[in-house]
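DOMAIN: structural biology
WANTED: fold as tokens
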Amino acid sequence: MPAGHHLAYFPPQVTLSQLLPDGTDILHSPGGPFERRLWAGGSVRFPVTGSLILNGARAVCIETIRDVIVKGRQGAEKVIVKIERRMGVVREGEEEGSIRERIWKEAEDEIGHATIIENRNLAFMRKKTQDELNFDRMNFDNCQRVIKRAQVHPTRPKSTC
């Protein structure tokens, strides 16, 4: 399977009506008051155990929440939800318990028989108050800055400070 195609073959396991207004899978959300979501990172690995070939045979995606971490001071905390999705082939006649045992592993760095391992880190924050939104709107243009690329001059040595 080409890189990225797992997103089409293994979409969220909830119906569209169960997605939150911003498209969040309701199973990933910590719930109120943490209504704002940010993508906080992720990765996709294609272990060398083989590639996932969809040729009419069964395949599976096992999705789990690996960890939930609360960061920040009370009232301004962020909830980080770490999600792992492991995909792999299902053997003929294989039972659910056997599939899970082969593909999902307790240790994140253990590959098992997964052919694709995707990690997603989502950060959830409290909804902003009306005062915070007004402050952001008033100050939006004040925080602009120009970011320039680094320039190296061939005749000048690099600074060591």
